[in-house]
Design a protein that fits this description.
By secondary structure, this protein is mostly helical. The chain has two domains: about 35-90, no CATH class; about 120-213, no CATH class. The protein contains ten helices and no strands. The radius of gyration is 21 Å and the shape is elongated.
């Protein structure tokens, strides 16, 4: 008798394609049990903005789509799934932010105050480490999605910072983006200045320098 729980994702998928319902059940349960692990892996500071029930529904829709459309040999299934999950989380969070922006703008008109700009606390979970440089990148990416990114922060610098946080040096990241070194340095200085302003405005205490930001 086959112990399906010991099989790899790809082996289970092969069995599923052959009509094995037990393999389908094992793989579905495996991924459902790790739904928060995968969410944290692909969008650690944003997936928790989604209501847990809505996230569960989104997650399972992504899983079913990946189970049906996965092509053997191109990627490991987990990598294929995580790419799809990240895309859907970004899409959902973008919709949440756009809706929140409308509400905040309406409130601002009613109250006479301009509270329509999202603060760091609106985007980042309160238990996130304030020293994690990815927090500020994700915040800026959210502002970019709703067309609220400050003029001094170029969308290009977000790609630069993202590549750096993925393991490249800033010089390597600039070369990959075909960005002149001086331009990259200027953009980075403006980005860091903006981040320091965020930290000061949101009263986030940090004793560490922002070298990795």
């Amino acid at each position: 008798m086959t112990d399906y729980s010991s099989l790899s994702d790809e082996a289970l998928l092969l069995a599923i394609r052959e009509g094995n319902e037990e393999a389908r059940s094992v793989l579905a349960i495996r991924y459902y049990q790790r739904r928060f692990v995968h969410g944290n892996a692909v969008a650690p500071t944003t997936y928790r903005m989604i209501d847990p029930c809505d996230y569960g529904s989104l997650y399972f829709r992504v899983y079913l789509a990946c189970e049906n459309h996965y092509t053997f040999g191109e990627h490991r299934f987990v990598s294929y799934f995580q790419m799809a999950l990240k895309h859907q989380i970004q899409k959902e969070v973008g919709a949440i932010m756009a809706n929140q922006q409308k509400v905040l703008s309406l409130d601002a008109k009613i109250s006479g105050h301009d509270d329509s700009i999202l603060s760091l606390h609106d985007v980042v979970a309160p238990d996130q480490d304030p020293h994690d440089p990815r927090i500020y990148l994700n915040y800026c990416e959210t502002l970019e999605k709703i067309s609220k990114l400050p003029k001094q922060v170029s969308p290009k610098v977000l790609r630069l910072v993202e590549l750096h946080l993925s393991g490249l040096s800033y010089d390597e990241a600039a070369r990959q983006l075909k960005m002149p070194r001086r331009t990259a340095k200027t953009m980075l200085e403006r980005y860091r200045k903006f981040v320091r302003g965020l930290i000061k405005h949101d009263n986030r205490v940090t004793a560490k320098p922002l070298k990795n930001v």
